[in-house]
Amino acid sequence: MTTRRTWQRCDDCGHEVDELDRSPRCPVCQGLLAVVHAMPARDGLRARLAANRSPSGVWRFGELVLPTAVDVAVSHPEGNTPLLERAALSAWCGVDGLLLKHEGHNPTGSFKDRGMTVGMTQAKRIGATAVACASTGNTSASLAAYAAQAGIPALAIVPDGQVTIGKLSQTLAYGARTLLVDGDFDDCLRLMQQVSVELGVYLLNSINPFRLEGQKTIVLELLQQCDWNAPDWIVLPAGNLGNTSAFGKAIDEAMAWRLIDRRPRLAAVQAEGAGPFAAAFSRGFDQLTPVHAETIATAIKIGAPASYHRAARAIVATDGVVLTVSDAEILAAKVAIDRAGVGCEPASAAAVAGVRKLRADGTIGRHDRVVAVLTGHILKDPGVLQQIHQNDSIAPALANRPIRIPADIAAVRDVLSSSGERQT
Questions:
Q1: Domain at 83-106+211-384, CATH class
Q2: pLDDT in tens, 343-352
Q3: Phi-psi bin for 137: left (phi > 0), alpha (psi -120 to 50), beta?
Q4: Which of 56, 123, 143, 239 is the most exposed place for a label (fewest CB within 10 A)?
């Protein structure tokens, strides 16, 4: 009898299905499915991971992600994102040695590529004739790119007028059939789940368990970069809660596989106008009450997060916290990140705004080891940069105005003198 290496199990009722079962949810109770792996050989695991020379920062962890598919992976490659330290940001947050895990360095500019390489590999393995997602923009951009590489038709459903030009342009350029819906992301996801069931396309939103297998490598990779010495805190933006769920799974497995000997605490940061997870946390996770989401951070502008229950379990298991930050706090953090030469989209800045807020209230200590995850590239939302720095429409106090001058050296000298720049 062949020993199973990987299978799927329902989070709610425990029903198990085969690794190659294409059901989007549990066929018994409609709960979310999770990917389960047989215990890897723990002796020498760290050394095996270090010796793996895969160019992908996801498939380098292949035996922990999808061991039966390593040789057929649809990979760009992705991952291998840096851990950055900037003294100015550490000082701004009040945390010595703050580290930034910058997922904007992925091929399409966001962390979504980590999940999509595994999800698209699974789509190809099961013979999917089409793949689809609902999106605020990053998922659709990633889906379109990886579907093009896999040679599978892609469908993206996005809220009309609520996707930034950077993300929508990527989705169109990579060839996905893109539908603009009169509604918000939550409307799009409800529609996409109907499409998946009734029209048979393979759903690649974060409720797909194979997506989370890729996204958990953010944590595995940062732990490896820290020589498996777990930080005190991992702080991340929270929208549909796929990453919060994936991070919790990664920590659980890293403990079980003896890669680390203590759990880092998770801090999930939501925007004030899109904070149903934080509200539920404040009530002891009694239930999720959906909201109509409003925030400048479009990537986390989600009012009914699909992965609520598994994300709540991750917060509880890590003795974590959930909080909200205002749009003003997000923009202030974004400007601080940008001016440190790092750059990110607004949703990413929520993580750093969260670090500063948690430090201010004493939850995070000055000497705690903290990793904040930046989820997307600065050019994912060029419109907000124009609003901040050129249009006076938001945060004018934070603006770095361009200055019009004649083509004259005296004008340049005047500008340098007035700004206190040193002249030679």
A1: alpha beta
A2: 999 999 999 9
A3: left
A4: 56
